[in-house]
Amino acid sequence: MMMETTNPGRLAALAGAAALAAVLAGCANFAPPHVAPTGMVPAEIGVGAAPAQATPAGLDAAQAQAWVQSPGLREAIALALSNNRDLRVAVATIERARAQYGIAQADLLPGVNANAQGSRSRTAADLNSSGRSVTSSQYTAQLAMTSYEIDFWGRVRNLNDAALQAFLQSGENQRNVQLSLMADVASAWLTLAADQARLALAQQTLETRRQSFARTERMHELGSTSGLVLEQNRTTVDAARTDVAGFSSQVERGRNLLQLLVGGPLPESALPAPLQLSAAAPAAALQPLPVPLPSSVLLQRPDVLAAEYQLRATNANIGAARAALFPSISLTAAVGTGSNELSGLFGSGNGTWSFVPLVRLPIFDGGRNRANIAVAEANQQIALAQYEKAVQTAFRETADALADRAHWAERLDAQASLVASTRKAFELSEARFKSGVDNYLAVLDAQRSLYAAQQTQISLQLLEQINRVTLVKVLGGAPTPAQAVAATPLPR
Q1: How many CB atoms lie within 10 A of CB 179?
Q2: Got the DSSP string for 240-251?
Q3: Of 220, 290, 296, 484, whose Cβ has the fewest other Cβ atoms within 10 Å?
Q4: Contact present, 96 and 145 (Cβ < 8 Å)
Q5: DSSP category for residue 367
């Protein structure tokens, strides 16, 4: 029996190649390094940090919101559009849907791969008919197209269309998040302005009551008033102190909410001023919307459009499921060259090719394909019901907001008149007490009534402004004046 002596140099070369491959495999890592996010919050709770900065895109988007009248609110919205984390998630979701649509679109075209392969093997002498060990080599280079489906029945096209609708739906979802974010920022900004007005009123009332208590205390020392009156006066001071502390905490919580929405601390220029108690100009941070409006405006709401795209995607999925009942034809082809010597790989006469068409005809699958069609049709019915509900919800929300809108002027005017009347009653009761005609209990009742009426006036002014924000949100954005001309009005 003949034996082949192994070349030590060849073994060393193979070992070196294996070691190099192992080193390269260990070094190649295409994953980005993990970097923990920083700078989201200040180093210590309660300590101020650098204000958030708006991006040019956020500034441009905020400037486009014509319904926002206050420069401070516009700046806060720009900061939110630049830094809010929920909006970042929505934008990243769009990019993911765009990439998934690109994957589905690629299935419409054949994929071509370049393959190069080399192999070297040794057959033992006992396994060879000649009784001698044999070492063989083989080298190939090919361009190959693998399993390209000819889309006779539209399965691939329908899957591509479903991916497209999902991408468009993600864009509307992002627009809906952006609209909701702007509405949330506006509501939080206006609420902070109202809380600041409540705090200022409570502070002013506390100072007035302290002065009144000081006068009453002096009168009690002189014996001109009773201890009951003194203690009654003291209760008004303590109640005002409680309100000041409560509204102070409320203002801080409002600032924290705004900071969360805009993604960082707000600069002073973006913070609101307190609402002004004026019946003539009730804090016009937002412009009124033109009414009546055409019903077609609601069909452009981002959530309604997203539901429509979802419905279209389910229709496409039905087409893809039905196409699975028909035969599918796929092609696999390759062209290249091969040789048992690397130097002769591209030599004359060494060309190779292969062509493998494959036809699949479903015969028996236990009802799987028809069940898939039933699932797709059920999903389409679900999407249809969701779309109809989205439209009905849009009409109901808008009708409710318009119903409130119709009576806000009357409510604000009535409350302003009530504040004026209670102020006059307080002044008269105080004058009657000083002249000895009436007791101090009437003064206390009038004082409490005036304070409650003023606080209610602030609340109504806030709710009227938030109603404008709600109208913008339920309409899918502020409509242009042209949309309000000569069209079917929305239901009241």
Answers
A1: 20
A2: HHHHHHHHHHHH
A3: 296
A4: no
A5: T
